[in-house]
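Box S1 | Example of a co-folding query
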Amino acid sequence: MADTVLIVAAHPDDEVLGVGGTAARHVLSGDAVHSLIVAEGVTSRSLHRDAVQAKPSLAQLGSEAARAAAELRLPPPRQLGLPDNRLDSLDLLDIIKPIEAIIAEVRPQVIYTHHAGDLNIDHECVHRAVLTAARRLPGSTVRAIYTFETVSSTEWGSLELSSGFRPARFVDIGTTLTAKLRALEQYEMEMRPFPHARSVTAVEALARVRGAQSGMEAAEAFGVMYELWK
Ligand SMILES: [Zn+2]
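Box S1 (continued) | Returned holo structure for zinc ion
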């Protein structure tokens, strides 16, 4: 039976960097894939958050996100529009509640979200919020939560605050890596030239390394928060 999958990412591009190849595989398997982006992106680049001034950039980022999703044959991501790189200024409950509402609406079996030890504070907040929103209550539809790595954040996280990203699940993305890289190319505002960690070349290199670690041409790697067999 087809699954419903929910990707919960902090910023536009994280959903592709972390799980783009696997999301495309889910689509090929007939699963329904939804993505939710919690923070608005962009506004942290100026000294003060000015959503009005940032409006054209946010609109461009929104259309880049929709084009990236289309490359993976996903619907455009839903956006919560919370303050970029300032999620730690909110009560965690104000992040948990809207995620809970979307879980109740979409009823996913599988959730992908951020690794907790990333350098980016929004990634940590989203991780915590998702684990709370998808806690293992009677009647919950969620059977598994997996965490993804995000280049230019996971590998820069403090090794004194976290034990690092230790994946236990590897997904073959040999057939979907090209679509993932094309999706990333849509994010002109976010991607950087190599040797920046957030470059198409570096993302492909990581996919090849994860593949080589698991006997595949290319892979995405995930941490396992829980898996239930119901
Ligand atoms: Zn991010």
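The chain has one domain: 4-227. The chain has six helices and seven strands.
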